[in-house]
Amino acid sequence: MEQVLSPLAIAHQHVVFEEGLALDCGVHLPRLTVAYRTYGRLDAARANAVLVCHALTGDQYVAETHPLTGKPGWWEVLVGPGRAIDTERYFVISSNVLGGCMGSSGPRSPRGEGGDDQALWGTDFPPITIRDMVRAQRRLIAHLGIERLFAVIGGSMGGMQVLEWAATYPDAVFAAIPIATAAHHSAQNIAFHEVGRQAIFADPDWQGGRYWQSGRTPARGLAVARMVAHITYLSEQALTRKFGRRVRAGSSVLGPYSDIFEVESYLQHQGSSFVHRFDANSYLAITRAMDYFDLAAEHNDDLASAFAGTKTRFCLVSFSSDWLFPTSESRALVRALNRAAANVSFVEIETDKGHDAFLLDEPDLARALSGFLAGCAEHARLA
Amino acid sequence: MSLAARIAPLRHVAKNMRVDLDLIAGMIAPGTRVLDIGCGDGPLIAHLFRTKGCDARGIEIDMKEVTRAVARGLPVMQGDADIDLAHYPDGAFDYVVLSRTLQAVGRPRAVLRQMLRIGTRAVVSFPNFGHWLVRWQLLARGRMPMTPTWDRMWYETPNIHPCTIRDFFDLCHAEGYAVERWLAADEAGHRAPWRRAPWLANLFGEQAVFLLRAKR
């Protein structure tokens, strides 16, 4: 079994909570493992902690070389010494989400979580929500001896966690920065996720979700899911700028069965490199968690009441060419925060890079983040 | 500190910072909640926080200004006064400030109503279209005035709703707003001496600042 999943079976820094976790679905997860990384130093007052929440396919390796892929951390452009989220000033924490496949409890972890039962959860892993992910992070934060986070930051699904943090634990969040996100997953977003899930289900190697038993993983299905999702992360302008209608060198055969356009091989590369670092059942569990997310529904269909009386300082960021989490979604959040008389900053950053822009080197994003954090540090009287 | 001493340094930065900001700040009590509509990159917000400990926030329509303000650590959101004020609850602020923006909004009367719904008081400043030079130019030349204050051609000015000091008094009366304080000043921020005579202030003041409160 371990040989089969060997690429994923790396030792990740983690903490185990023996008491487990009560989930929104009603199931009590018997043991909870949270894998995490930290950067920088926690100050004496334990007041400079910044939690970075990752997106659907991200993980806790924010600002260091990834142990599996050997690539730089996914947010190294923004997190590090002297960067916008300065690890010389802030104590940065990032954990693998509940349901993930980088060491936290999820479909590919053993039911016994290190105990006697070594059988994997697989598709029996209980359905999870964004709020469950945040509850697991809350355990980690308490374990690290932190009562109040100076800031919680995240893009896309990470932004959903930021919103959930601010709504569920308002006193534990001084500043919240939800980037390129929304208060709920739209019908269009759910539809794209469903295409990805169906691609995984349709792969004969998925085998009802028990693929580890045969040693064949649903790589084709997962790759197609990634390809579809990747299109939604880019803008039409960005695809045109990068590839246009350029034809691959050496492709002379015209026909439906050969790769012709550069954009095709690009997408295929995105798909095939993804399957080496991600688990198909985790993909199913986490996309579902995103689809379930509806912050207003958790608060009597009134988004403003999710933030009633909040003292948290908010900074929302959207990107002009993001059509997956468009500016209108951020603006709806801003208006709900206005109704709650919350302290809110909001910028839309002009870029043609689509939803992906939050992961890329966008100077205006870096300036807004570092400025907002510095302003909050002044208000929090952070040294 | 005398008014002149307070204002003198502002003259050097008049091109960067609108000179009425100090006049506005003078009408705002320390430690209060303030919303600045059309705040630019946030000079008034920074000033009120640093010197008066106010919880000051801003709305600005121009995204470049907003990005600059947020990068300076100021709580500013991109928004449109004509639309976004409706989303705030009643009495959310002690003061709502509209600095040299009233003449540029689509529905000034509706914006004023929103200001005095979401704030206990409103501070409004605007360039005075009743200034003698404006009147003289229109009378003598028969063309739209071009002055240091009104310096854009009629076809490209954002100032679609200019008014005079007396017009504004009339509007306040019609809408039932109490004028708690008011003043007229020249472009450099020097306060005009015609405190008791609105018609004189209307002739010689280049800009005006009003502190309003909704009558019960």
UniProtKB/TrEMBL annotation, chain A:
EC number: 2.3.1.31
Molecular function via GO: homoserine O-acetyltransferase activity
Species: Acidicaldus sp
Binding site for substrate: 226, 356
Domain AB hydrolase-1: 48-360
Gene name tied to this protein: metXA
Keyword Glycosyltransferase in record: no
Protein's pathway: Amino-acid biosynthesis; L-methionine biosynthesis via de novo pathway; O-acetyl-L-homoserine from L-homoserine: step 1/1
A GO cellular-component term linked to this record: cytoplasm
Protein name (database record): Homoserine O-acetyltransferase
Family per similarity comment: Belongs to the AB hydrolase superfamily. MetX family.
Cell compartments where the protein resides: Cytoplasm
Function of the protein: Transfers an acetyl group from acetyl-CoA to L-homoserine, forming acetyl-L-homoserine.
GO biological process: homoserine metabolic process; methionine biosynthetic process
Catalyses which reaction(s): L-homoserine + acetyl-CoA = O-acetyl-L-homoserine + CoA
InterPro entries for the chain: AB_hydrolase_1, AB_hydrolase_fold, HAT_MetX-like
Assembly and oligomerization: Homodimer.
